[in-house]
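Input chain follows. Return structure tokens only.
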Amino acid sequence: MAAATDAHPALILAGVEAGVPVFCEKPVARTMSEGVEVLKSVQGSGVPIQIGYNRRFDTGFVNARAAVLSGELGKLHTVRSTTLDPAPPPAAYIAASGGIFRDCSVHDFDIIRWVTGREVTEVYAVGGNRGADFIKEAGDADTTGAILTLDDGTIAVVSNSRHNARGYDVRMEIHGFTDSIAVGLEDKLPLRSVEPGVTFPAGTPHDFFMDRFTEAYRAELTAFTEVVASTRPSPCTIEDALEAGWIADACTLSLHEHRPVTIEEVRQA
């Protein structure tokens, strides 16, 4: 569906009631409580629902997940995930976005869960405002950092900003006791080296999410045709989307209250 966030719950439920498979961009709903109600309403319906988290279909992230699941990296100890936008969206969008953690960082939260196969148990988040005034006026941050503790003790570091003059930067590093790998370390990486003689990256930097993830979006929609044909289960369920949402809520609370927050705390709120 292509509709504003507020319309997502009603349209999901309408599709399920009609027995029509549903593809819905993230988020499921504006608030977690609404999302939970949607989940309760569709459970047991048998109608497939796919939520749009496109990074699950990017070749680099797919390869990273395979490397983790195969055990070739050994036991993990650190994950770093980055999303840096070249410029902020309009003020009206920011005001209705739910905040940077729910709108932007949530992609990092989802892909960390998917690549590692682990759940987040606790977060600590910080944020700042050194750019567009309208972001601060909306009660949001334009640059944030979050430390996530995973359920096996792995530490994930998430970095986000609405201001990255060199381009659209999405990367992940995964460090294990046997090997380390990176996603997004290629010639269109929007980063400039100042090391003598280094010419990498040599390409034109990514400038927008559609540039960076064109093929991932195609793969995502191809996957949905397979879901509709009943040849594969949903590759991103409402439950998956809600898990990323709980992490976003925990980070938002942590930012506002300057303290660590467990996922269980926000679930029970």
